[in-house]
Amino acid sequence: MRFLYFLYRPFLYTIFPIGFVFMTFVSFFSSIFLGEKRGRKIILLYNNFTAFMMRMTIITEGIENYDRTKSYVVVANHKSNADPIILWASLNADILWVMKSELLKIPVFGFIMKRLGNMGIDRKNSKKAIASIGEAKKRLTKGTCVGFFPEGTRFHGNEIGPFKKGAFHFASELGLPVLPVSISGSEKIIPARSIFVHYGKVKAVIHPPVEVKETSAADLNAVAEKVRKTIEAGFTPDYE
């Protein structure tokens, strides 16, 4: 099986860039003429196609905790570049991604991501961070979620890193519950510092939503730690 996948890789690496460029521009023009949400829907379809082409088996648990008619601030642990693909495919949700502002400065990519409604957050600039919350309020419609990886970057190893409070500020200001998701096995699909994609099985555990009514820094720290422990409890190191 591994040998066959090795032979399959050249096709995979050829079709992915072509498909990504094509679908990105299709979604971009769809967002102009049909609206942002329809543009993101096209990206979601391509994301699910990508998961299939990678021969990635996604085991989803706790889907009953997710109501497609409601909006959430979705938070998950981050081990691999495969995590957004897994999170999107497991929820099959319309997600506005909140990412490091540096990513939105990448030519073409950054422009299209912003056009599709995704947002950058500058953790060093509180005024811009507050502006991002206001921007999210304008874009949220029924069933649209806001996605975060609150560790801030990929956290390698068998532990879950400390959570930054940005996602919880968003949840408090937007009046949305936090939907915790534990992702296991993704680091074997796209390992750290590797360009190679591997087939395999991953697991996404969707936990019950957590209401965030606190506004003080101490209270938000407590909620962030509670959610981190929930995600940690659902995380399986060395998942196969």
Keywords:
240 residues; alpha/beta; Glycerol-3-phosphate (1)-acyltransferase; 7-stranded mixed β-sheet; 16% strand; globular
Describe what this molecule looks like in 3D.
The chain has 240 residues and is of the alpha/beta class. Helix content is 47%, strand content 16%. It is built from eight helices and seven strands. A seven-stranded mixed beta sheet has the order 1-7-6-2-5-3-4, sandwiched between helices. Strand 3, helix 4 and strand 4 form a beta-alpha-beta unit. Helix 1 (2-34) runs antiparallel to helix 2. The mean pLDDT is 82.
Query: What is the H/E order?
Result: HHEEHEHEHEHEHEH
Fraction of residues in β-strands: 15-25%
Q: What Rg do the Cα atoms give? A: 17 Å
Distance between the termini: 16 Å
Helix content: 40-55%
CATH homologous superfamily annotation: Glycerol-3-phosphate (1)-acyltransferase
The average pLDDT value, as a whole number, equals 82
Low confidence ranges = none
CATH level 1 name: Alpha Beta
Count of all domains: 1
